[in-house]
Design brief:
The protein has about 325 residues and is mostly helical. The protein contains twelve helices and two strands, in the order αααββααααααααα. It has a two-stranded antiparallel sheet. The longest helix is centred in the first third of the chain and has 33 residues.
Length: about 325
């Protein structure tokens, strides 16, 4: 049984009924909300284990409801707006940070063609001939939320955090874009579904290993995660660009950070780890790359990258600002 017919093409998009488009959009949104909640909990658990601590264990069985409790706590807190801020931009900044992070996931493929109530549809919201460039462009918009948050707060520390973030993203997007170029040249396409199909015989992590390593470093810098979390360095900038934020506005910045982690992990999976295709030797079975099984392989690969994010945060000290920029 050949699985080639299961790979969607650009012609397979744009034919879904409205209810199916809405259902897919809701599924992507739920994926992007649930995974950060789980990632926050597991990050605290894994960090506690690596540091020989107990970690959260009070809310729910073995602390599994800790993220939910934190979300409720932030939602019920009073939203304080400091004096001297540019109120409109101050309130818009968290939204500008979150919305692009969610939009970027529209072109990420979760699986092959499947049947949903008799409709043949790809497990992907949409795709574009320049799908990967769309992700790069949309995620770049998110940095405006960080810059505007720092500028509108009317405080020195958030402003410095915002400026650091700007320099960081500009520096590392160049390296990230060059890693994309190697993938485009071999796959002969910029669409995410086409790149996954091009990896049917071999994954690009083996063929383009230097590009994968550069992308892995760049994605940590792009998401402002330790050891590259310079825009929010507590020892230097108190809390960084979101020092003056509280309540749901602070929660939106946190959500944007973890959604960006999921997005760059999903993009790494799509570009270098065969996307939703099953790993060897599971891929030798006919059922492995058909139906809904690929969603499982895709999720496991994304979580492998998320674990690396957590591992790096626990293991490595923060780089000095000039060292990090020289590395870029």
């Amino acid at each position: 049984m050949s699985i080639a017919a299961d790979f969607p093409t650009l012609d397979d998009f744009g034919h879904d009924p409205i209810w199916l488009v809405v259902a897919k959009a809701l599924a992507v949104f739920v994926f992007l909300v649930v995974n950060p909640l789980i990632a926050i909990l597991l990050e605290r658990k894994i960090m506690a284990r690596m540091q020989t601590r107990i970690g959260p264990n009070r809310v729910g069985p073995r602390g599994v409801l800790q993220s939910l409790a934190d979300g409720v706590k932030l939602a019920l807190k009073e939203g304080i707006i400091p004096t001297g801020v540019d109120k409109v931009i101050y309130l818009l900044a968290p939204i500008i940070a979150v919305v692009p992070a969610v939009m970027a996931f529209a072109v990420i493929p979760f699986g092959p063609m499947v049947s949903v109530f008799g409709h043949q549809t790809p497990l992907q919201l949409t795709d574009l001939p320049v799908g990967v460039l769309y992700v790069l462009a949309v995620t770049s918009v998110g940095v405006y939320g960080i810059v505007l948050a720092g500028w509108s707060s009317g405080s020195t520390y958030p402003l410095l955090g915002g400026l650091r973030s700007t320099a960081q993203v500009i520096s590392y997007e160049i390296a990230m874009g060059l890693t994309f170029a190697a993938v485009f040249l071999d796959a002969a396409t910029m669409s995410t579904s086409g790149i996954v199909a091009a990896q049917e015989r071999h994954w690009y992590v083996l063929l383009l290993l230097p590009s994968f390593v550069i992308y892995a470093i760049s994605m940590v810098g792009e998401t402002n995660r330790a050891p590259f979390d310079l825009p929010e360095a507590e020892g230097e900038l108190v809390g960084g660009f979101h020092t003056e934020y509280s309540s749901l506005k602070f929660a939106m910045f946190m959500l944007a950070e973890y959604i960006n982690m999921v997005t760059v992990s999903a993009l790494a999976t799509t570009l270098f780890l065969g996307g939703w295709q099953a790993p060897w030797p599971v891929s030798t079975f006919d059922w492995a790359n058909s139906g809904w099984w690929p969603v499982l392989w895709f999720t496991l690969k994304v979580w492998a990258f998320l674990f690396v994010f957590i591992w790096l945060r626990t293991s490595l000290p923060r780089l000095r600002y000039d060292q990090f920029m020289n590395l870029g």
